[in-house]
Amino acid sequence: MSFFSSRSLPGLRTALPAGIGLMLALSSTARADDSFTPAQRKEIVTIVRDALKTDPSILSDAITALRAGAEAQEQTRTRDALVAHRAALTTPAPTDAILGAPNARTTVIEFYDPRCPYCRKVLADLDRLVHDDPNVRIVEKVIPVLGPASVLTAQAIAASALQGGHDAYFRMQRAIMTDTTKPDTARIRLLAKQAGLDADRLVADMAGPAVAATLRANSELAEAIHLEGTPTFVFDARYVIPGAVDYDGLKAAVDKTRHN
């Protein structure tokens, strides 16, 4: 007698979305379940095929369920990572910088690449956020992810902090991130001079151990919390917003952080 009797079919058809999801999951991992005989597997395929012909929405429901499950798993993984790395996230490194009040009660950590157009676009919104809300601070963590030009500009921004702390950092950061010329060492020197920095020292510090350690630590932290692109914003090591977000989105996330 077949494992799937005629009396079992209605219940099986009701559970088809989950069954299809299971089949898709098994297919994606290229593993077979040895608890079913070849005949039973054939009958499963026949039942699923017939059901899909009758109601094609079953497949979309199964895919939706799989996606929802994957998203839930990713949210849990990210939440656990934020908890594990809370101290590193909320404690600025010497070559990071803080925009806003250093002791503000709400911390927004921004991972950004100086060459990222979306990171450049959000600069004005970050300035507005800390201007409007004295109880929020932005901890800037520069990470080069877009190639050699990103590495060069990230090194320059991190090195600027060694000359004049946050003020020098932001002068160099804004000079680089508002510049439309392709960066090279000569261009970095010019921008450093325009920002009031010692260009020779900056270039030397760019190749030094402090800058290398900061960029490595920032990149490792970004990987540890499963960051997938820039900009990414982390709110009090509790919530993550990947990608560009406008002023209203930033403000709403800050409010959510404070009230949850």
TrEMBL record:
Residues 1-32 form the signal peptide. PROSITE patterns: THIOREDOXIN_2 (PS51352). Pfam families: DSBA, ScsC_N. Keywords: Disulfide bond, Isomerase, Oxidoreductase, Redox-active center, Signal. It comes from the Bacteria. One of its GO terms (molecular function) is isomerase activity. Residues 66-259 form the Thioredoxin domain. SUPFAM superfamilies: Thioredoxin-like (SSF52833). This is Protein-disulfide isomerase. It comes from Gluconacetobacter liquefaciens (Acetobacter liquefaciens).
